Amino acid sequence: MLKDVVATRFVAPLREGGSLPGLVEADDLGLYVLKFTGAGQGRKTLVAEVVCGELARRLGLRVPRLVTVGLDPVLGLAEPEQQVQDLLRSSGGTNLGMDFLSGALGFDPLAFAVGAEEAGRVVWFDALVNNVDRSWRNPNLLRWHGELWLVDHGASLIWHHNWPGAERSAARPYDATDHALAPFAPDVRSAAAELAPLVTEDLLAEVTAEIPDAWLADEPGFATPDEVRRAYAGPLLARAADIHERVRLEGER
Question: How far apart are CA 27 and CA 42, in angstroms?
């Protein structure tokens, strides 16, 4: 299970992205980028972060370590900015944190080259989870200690916003023409041959077990959090089987 920590100090808001994450210090002395349950995108953004982040980690991709962060709303009382105060007050309880990669640089395709094999693994993974937020405009990739790290998967798994249409949504192709790694000739087929067999029911059960019950409770159409967890497996298993055949890259028809 994800490690549980408790936020002890709100350090600063981070002005990147639409969710206004924050930097917090926790009782294990770690520094974490905190994503709030009270943010406008809601708890499903945090669920997507856990499913995608933990799945990526098990497939051998680099993602910052995830933790659950207990937040006491009183931490926001001293914040001078009303928006930050409101966000902290509305996010009491369990939130999501990820290791702060101090000194990491945003990915710049003009400054860093990526091999076709690594690019293919990332593009295939993004196709699997239908990540629509890895374009050259907003790569959500970091360069840390000379290696590529994946961050920010909240916009993935779009089908979990409409479960009745999940099967139909998951059957759609993946347009990678705008992908940040498209210029590096990603070898998607080789990535699929390596990674698709690893995506099994058992692996997905292990991944979805990491989602806190509180983020799955009262989901319309489901009686229990475990039912919601099982619902994530179907679309991902289906896409793992053949999504490489439906990835569109620049110059392909």
Answer: 25
